[in-house]
């Protein structure tokens, strides 16, 4: 029998249509705020990729792309605050208008580190655009210029966000059934 990933979903938190509408609004707002400027979008791998590819098409200004990959030590679903750069920028960010694109800000530890790191490269400006923010879990302060949705403290998947590398290709943001997390934890002994 074929496995249907939808069977793992408890509920859809943000639908595909709601995501598309909000991405359009963010793109329009960013276009207005950066008029006359070029944007260097820095996507944080891997989760931000879907959001970034839709967002850039909603911006009608010159946009160039670069990517960083970071890893934080610690248990699987929480950030420890110790951030390691696994892939650095390919381009120089100096004098550029940097827009960091993230899928989610949870504890804020990853972005807190990344903003400081990018500021040290003397860009013209640094701002954050995140699809999701979970303020209830914040441990480090982060200035968010553009936020798609503020969500409660649920572990969410879809539209780039994974659980154990799965579910990134859902076109919506959803919450998995508790049994999915439990069985994954048991088999991985985490
Ligand atoms: O605010 P924080 O508590 O620091 O958490 C947010 C970070 O966690 C997620 O990345 P993850 O490590 O899951 O990597 P991924 O994008 O490759 O899935 C997310 O994309 C952020 O980078
Ligand atoms: N997939 C996923 N990754 C996260 N990283 C921090 N919070 C979350 C979350 O809710 N879902």
TrEMBL record:
InterPro entries: HGPRT, Hxn_phspho_trans, PRTase-like, PRTase_dom. Residues 18-163 form the Phosphoribosyltransferase domain. Pfam families: Pribosyltran. GO terms for biological process: GMP salvage; guanine salvage; hypoxanthine metabolic process; IMP salvage; purine ribonucleoside salvage. The keyword Acyltransferase does not apply. Its cofactor is Mg(2+). GO terms for cellular component: cytosol. GO terms for molecular function: guanine phosphoribosyltransferase activity; hypoxanthine phosphoribosyltransferase activity; magnesium ion binding; nucleotide binding. Pathway: Purine metabolism; IMP biosynthesis via salvage pathway; IMP from hypoxanthine: step 1/1; Purine metabolism; GMP biosynthesis via salvage pathway; GMP from guanine: step 1/1. Its main location: cytoplasm. Its EC number is 2.4.2.8. It is found in: Cytoplasm. Keywords: Cytoplasm, Glycosyltransferase, Magnesium, Metal-binding, Nucleotide-binding, Purine salvage, Transferase. It catalyses: GMP + diphosphate = guanine + 5-phospho-alpha-D-ribose 1-diphosphate; IMP + diphosphate = hypoxanthine + 5-phospho-alpha-D-ribose 1-diphosphate. Belongs to the purine/pyrimidine phosphoribosyltransferase family. Purine salvage pathway enzyme that catalyzes the transfer of the ribosyl-5-phosphate group from 5-phospho-alpha-D-ribose 1-diphosphate (PRPP) to the N9 position of the 6-oxopurines hypoxanthine and guanine to form the corresponding ribonucleotides IMP (inosine 5'-monophosphate) and GMP (guanosine 5'-monophosphate), with the release of PPi. This is Hypoxanthine phosphoribosyltransferase. The lineage of its organism: Bacteria, Bacillati, Bacillota, Negativicutes, Selenomonadales. The gene is hpt.
């Amino acid at each position: 029998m074929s496995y249907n990933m939808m069977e793992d979903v408890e509920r859809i938190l943000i639908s595909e249509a709601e995501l598309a509408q909000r991405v359009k609004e963010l793109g329009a707002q960013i276009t207005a705020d950066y008029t006359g400027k070029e944007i260097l979008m820095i996507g944080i791998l891997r989760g931000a990729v879907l959001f970034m590819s839709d967002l850039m098409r909603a911006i009608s200004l010159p946009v160039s792309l670069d990517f960083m990959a970071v890893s934080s030590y610690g248990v699987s679903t929480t950030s420890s605050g110790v951030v390691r750069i696994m892939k650095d920028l390919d381009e120089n960010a100096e004098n550029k208008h940097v827009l960091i694109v993230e899928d989610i800000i949870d504890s804020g530890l990853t972005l807190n580190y990344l903003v400081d790191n990018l500021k040290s490269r003397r860009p013209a400006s640094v701002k954050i655009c995140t699809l999701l923010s979970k303020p209830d879990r914040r441990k480090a302060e982060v200035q968010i210029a553009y936020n798609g949705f503020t969500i409660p403290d649920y572990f969410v998947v879809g539209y780039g966000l994974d659980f154990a590398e799965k579910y990134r290709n859902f076109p919506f943001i959803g919450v998995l059934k508790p049994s999915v997390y439990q069985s994954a934890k048991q088999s991985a002994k985490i």
